[in-house]
Amino acid sequence: MKRVIKIVLILFVVYVGVVATFESLLGYFQPQGDGMIVITTTNSEGVRKDRVVSRIDSADQLYVAANHWPRAWYRQTLALPNVSVTAGNATAEYLAVPVEGAEHDRVDADHPLPLSFRILTGFPPRYFIRLDPK
C-alpha cells in the first residue's frame, strides 16, 4: 500500500511540475497570433502591464477569459476596470465587466476549451470579462 501511495505522490508532483512549467512558459513567451489581443491593465500603484489574451467573440460582444492559475491581470482588471485593448495596430479603451450567471454559461458553452489544454493548465476555474467600448 505504501508503494502505491508513493507512486501516486510522485505522479502528482510530476503533474504539478508540468502544469507549472506550461503556465510559466505561456506567461514568459506571451504567444501571439490570430485571435489574440493585448489587454493593458493598471495596478493599484498606477503601473500599466500588457498581457496577451485570446479574443472571444460571442453574441456580438468582445470577451476575454482567465483560463490559467496565474491571473493577476484578471484581479487588476476587476479592481480597475478601465483597460486598453490592442488588436493588430489599433488600440481602443474599454470598460471591463465581470461576467456571471447565464451570460457566463453561454460564453463558456460557445467557446469550450479542449481537454488537452485543461489538462496542461491544471483545470483552473474559468472566468470571463466582457469588454464594453467606451
List the keywords.
134 residues; alpha+beta; Pnp Oxidase, Chain A; seven-stranded antiparallel sheet; 4 helices; 39% helix
> β content, as a range?
25-35%
Average pLDDT value? 89
CATH class division: Mainly Beta
CATH architecture: Roll
What integer value in Å does the Rg equal? Answer: 17 Å
Question: Kindly, what is the distance between the CA atoms of the first and last residues, rounded to a whole number of angstroms?
Answer: 61 Å
The general outline is: elongated
Q: Using DSSP, what is the number of strands? A: 7
By CATH's scheme, which homologous superfamily applies? Electron Transport, Fmn-binding Protein, Chain A
Number of domains: 1
**Given the structure, what is the number of helices?**
4
- Tell me the helix content: 25-40%
Low-confidence stretches: none
Query: Helix/strand-derived class?
Result: alpha+beta
Strand order across the biggest sheet?
A: 2-1-5-6-7-4-3
- What can be said about the biggest beta sheet? 7 strands, antiparallel
Element pattern in H and E: HEEEEHEEHHE
CATH topology annotation: Pnp Oxidase, Chain A
What does this structure look like?
- The chain has 134 residues and is of the alpha+beta class.
- The protein has a single domain (2-133), classed as Electron Transport, Fmn-binding Protein, Chain A (Pnp Oxidase, Chain A, Roll).
- The protein has helices at residues 2-29, 72-79, 101-110, 115-120, and strands at 36-42, 48-54, 56-58, 61-66, 82-87, 90-99, 127-133.
- It has a seven-stranded antiparallel beta sheet.
- The N and C termini lie far apart (61 Å).
- The mean pLDDT is 89.
